[in-house]
Amino acid sequence: MRNRDLSFWLFLSPVLLALALVVIVPLLYGTFYSFTDWDGLRATRFIGFENYSRLIHDTAFLNSLWFTIKFSVVTVILLNFFGLSLALIVTRKLKSANLLRTVFFMPNLIGGLILGFIWQFIFISVFSDIGEALGIAGLQGWLSTTTTGFWGLVILTVWQMAGYIMIIYIAYLQNIPNELIEAAKIDGANSFQRFKNITFPLVAPAFTVSMFLTLSTSFKMYDQNLSLTNGGPFESTQMVAMEIVKTAFSSNEMAYGQAKAVVFFLIVAIISLTQVYYNKKREVDM
Amino acid sequence: MITMKKMLFVLLMLAIAFALAACGGSDEESGNENAGSGEQVSIDIFQGKVEFKDQFEDLVAQYQEENPDVSISVKTVGGGTDYDPVLKTEFNSGEAPDIFNIGGPQGVEDYREYLTDLSDTKAADAALDGTLSTVKDGEEILGLPFNQEGYGLIYNKRIFEEAGINPDDLLTYEDLEKAVQTLDGMKEELGIDSVFAFPGKEGWVIGDHAANAYLSPEFDQDVMKAYQAETLAFERADEFKRFIDLQADYSVGPVLSLDYSQQVEEYFSLERVAMIQQGNWVYPSIQQMDEEVAQNIGIIPIPVEGHEGSIPVGVPNYWAVNNQGTDEEIQAAKDFLDWMYTSEAGKTAVLEDFKFIPAYEGYDTDKIVDPLSKEVYEYSEAGNTIGWIFSGYPTMWGQDALGSNIQRYLGDEATFEEAIDAAIAEWESARQ
Fold this sequence. Notes:
The complex is a heterodimer. Chain A has helices at residues 6-33, 50-56, 59-91, 97-105, 112-134, 146-174, 178-186, 191-202, 204-220, 223-228, 240-250, 254-282. By secondary structure, chain A is mostly helical. Chain A has a single domain (54-282), classed as Orthogonal Bundle (MetI-like fold), CATH 1.10.3720. The longest helix of chain A has 33 residues, at 59-91. Chain A is globular and about 75 Å long. Chain B is α/β, with parallel strands linked by helices. Chain B folds into 2 domains: 40-148 and 315-362, Periplasmic binding protein-like II (D-Maltodextrin-Binding Protein, domain 2), CATH 3.40.190.10; 150-314 and 374-430, Periplasmic binding protein-like II (D-Maltodextrin-Binding Protein, domain 2). In chain B, helix 9 (203-215) runs antiparallel to helix 11 and helix 12 crosses helix 13. The chains are: A mainly alpha, B alpha/beta. Chain A binds chain B through residues 39-41, 124, 140-146, 230, 232-235, 246, 249-252, and chain B through 81, 84-85, 88, 91-92, 106, 110-111, 200-201, 253-257, 395-396, 399-400, 404-405, 407-408, 410-411, 413.
């Protein structure tokens, strides 16, 4: 099958070139700079692992890393739960199935920054108005504490991405052969048993894909974070990506920010690859 | 199959057309440049103040009409935080502009090797006392001030009148506190939500501006002393605390999610609060919201013991000329800056179109139209000012270190002493 002749490489070259120019070369450059005292204008000397050893004691970075991990765990679970639930709803034989699919997918079409500002308005103004009208104190003062900031971000992300994950699950759900389900029905399995023993194992590949997507997006999230809370209050809802941008561009420590970015890259790569490896092992072939 | 082939063909044609168009575009551009560099001097300006982009471009066009042998291209990238990284990229990519902006001592240090001495310009002679101290290196003057800005407590004259408060009397903290309590007691009659709108979300309002008033005396109001200081004592921490507390306690809440646009537009412009801590730069926003309110506002000073009746006034930005250009380019850049700040046409534009508070002598200041700028200028002219030292803070210290620690205090996550100590520790570690 694999005839890697000239045309193979010819067709591949535009992509390879683009990938090399925008991903691989900057990655190498960046790693190189993380060992220097680069300030964006000039790098005067090599400082070895100084940036990296400094980073271990940097509470701002560690706090943001911990916040990001908490956030990722919660959003990955919720996203997959809602994604699969929505997919199950719209694959039923409902009249409105197509309409619902569109509606559920819609939030994904709005850019992250704009969504952040829309939800900021909802959390701050709409929530507090509703809270005032109904006398629920818990709806007031959203985004002004760390907890509400955290849940604000979770709600926003889940609302935005659930539709996208839904599409992936739909694709796999529709691939499940009807015979299997019918056979199970004849054997007397109720709907929960059918879901647990047939549907669930067969959409496992979708889990691999969705987990990978949700993990890496929630780890790398920046624009929603920026527009919704901007790290506030007191930098407690600041995620790693944002912390890195601040180090590099606001505090002007380009090399140090670069070192953080390299560490962050390694963390995301390791987590995502381990996850894919384990999920792959658990998939069943038909 | 036929349709597939057709599709491919169409796609191919599109790709070719696109490629041709792209080539065509670049050809044209280089053609222009060639024509320009014949006998003309062309200079590039890269500036970061989006608020006056259009007016500035109009002025540049006017200059080019008067001086046909100079062609100027202006590039604007805005909003403070974005400007510096882009400027760095320009320098890194070898497209360094001829005229660019620097913010203060840190900017001078970062770009020192690129800065031209501007002491032979007319504008440098005309610059007001004290506006050049941050950009001086020995005898050399490395930047020219944009304008002056000042801040304090901006108040709504109508509300003050109805409450029977004379703003001119509010000099000490005690006076201010009494007035705030009066206003707070009359909230219903005055139809306001609260006395203040305190934007706790904005670290710069707390850490840069409010703190500056109380830190400035410690450094003799000299930004260079702050820039060189390895630590700070924060002698006036108590005064700073009560000023922050006063604003936070009598503010619409919750303060920690209140931001700049809510403060200025939603609360102050709609007359839902009586006072906000801001500067003359908010005038255009208020004017856009409500012309009538905008004409009825003034500034009262932030109460600082020993400096009653003074407001913090300073220069937010400087023009710098790149010394890497040819002699003609450098001269053309200097001529343009001189023309902008010292010729009659330039002066008119600076005052009336840019709506700047001039940082230079020889302006007809009766022409300053907005009430805030006028008041700031009067304070400045009378010498009743407190120097801006926050451009001498360690990079981002005001916003990220002090600002976020005070936010922690406002959110009951730390005591005030803990917040100040943490901020001082960050200052020290940045200056090691």
